[in-house]
Amino acid sequence: PQASAAEAAATESSPPAGQDPGDARAELGLIARMHTALQQAKPKSVLALCVEHERRWPHGTFAQERQGLRAVAACRVGAVGAGALARAFLVSYPRGPLAARVRDACGAAP
Length: 110
Description:
The chain is mainly alpha-helical. The chain has helices spanning about 5-10, 20-40, 45-55, 65-75, 80-90, 100-105. The chain is about 70% helix and about 0% strand. Helix 4 (about 65-75) packs antiparallel against helix 5.
């Protein structure tokens, strides 16, 4: 299986200064759970995990990934504001690793 963007980033970077490496592993573990839930067609679980991630790591290493996964999951459940989440993500990260997935899930233009 191919590594997710989160896993690839984790191997290429170290935790921000002052962040416990165990905490970085916990953050990555939560991102991995989001990817698994999305693969299992459980977008509501992804949204709940995004809330937990934002609470624990509002400016974490994987905040971009959280925002992209949140947009994809919101679009899949037809949540109010899903299009706005997708557009905001694509404006901030038009060439990010999740941009194509957000466009596919949400039908959003760059």
